[in-house]
Write a structure and sequence with these properties.
2 domains, Aminopeptidase, 18 strands
Amino acid sequence: MKRYFPMTVLASAILAGCASTSITSSDVEKAYQSINSEQLAEHIKVLASDEFGGRAPSSKGEELTLAYLTDQFKALGFEPGNGDSFLQEVPLVSLEADSDMVLTIGGKDYQYKKDMVMGSSRISAKQSIKDSELVFVGYGVNAPEYNWNDYEGLDVKGKTVVMLVNDPGFATKNPDLFTGDAMTYYGRWTYKYEEASRQGAAGAIIIHETAPASYPWSVVENSWSGEQFGFQKENNNMDRVAVEGWVTTDVAKELFTKAGLDFDTMKANAAKGAYHVDMGDLTASVEVNNTIKKSISYNFIATLPGSEKPDEHIIYSAHWDHLGTDKTRKGDQIYNGAHDNATGTAGLIEVAEAFATLPEHPSRSMTFLAVTAEEQGLLGSKYYAANPVIPASQTVANINMDSLNLLGKVKDISVVGIGKSEMDNLLETAAKA
């Protein structure tokens, strides 16, 4: 069955990139018809096969994925996007915490994966916190532009901060608070650990809740255990908190009760304004033992040069990686990642093929970027943003694809970040078709 992949993604980019060429609407329709679910499924089958081992960064699965992308884009007539190479080096370090750990709070030991997942971003064989005082810091946000600082007047040096996931806008659904229901960067776990580190905390713990996190505890349990990737830095990430991690909602409620606090009341207070409160005499202790490996992973980049404005690029992106293989699991050990994100990676190939079927190249260059280590905190994207192959001044738009629709035809399209891009107008035109 055709057209499970949204025409709007292709059509809006063609409108942005082809306005001054002789490409006609019938050319666009023909290109669109070249996209079909059968081809998409074949690419997904390859990328999500057991042979690819779950596509972890710096693994055999990465080698196979990059080779597959290179072969596909070469066959479509695309050129290397990074000089004479299809690849951009991303220097990574992996830290794998020993699962034989316990988090001790209030005289009780909490178990790894079942109750909590802890680790350290410091490139160090051993990190720990011992009898570190707990402080609830609401959402753990310091956002001057929103006049919000959960750390205001608070000294957390040597302490462990406990915080909620997402940001206050999600909790209140108030469109005038942060961005309402749409998570800002302040709501992401990456930011929360970074801010806790800037504040000088010894440890940082995020309370998991499924709705505001947008994923169940099983995702934390599986994606935060095993190898965790970060960047190789001269300071070995010693500016990060010593220990960072998650606890389940049930554990959080128990801890708040031990501290003489009501979890739901604390949540409500945290959404009303900048908020923090000591958690009684509760302290946390845990030791993290890391196995350290340094490696090079790669972003993939390919370009179809523009016919009139080759220096102006529209970028399609998707992350090619998934969670890899967990040899400690019983039974099936491979996280194949068919939906997340073999669909998006296969989508890159299908859209690229559609552009290749046009009678001439679009006016602007069409560039396809498959990034690494998304599951580890958007690392490939972060590295590209800090080291762009194409300068931001020459990047007209970026259309990112993650976990494509598998349900069939739909009548609606959802946009993350609507109202923040001039692409909205082109999308609206394309969606009406």
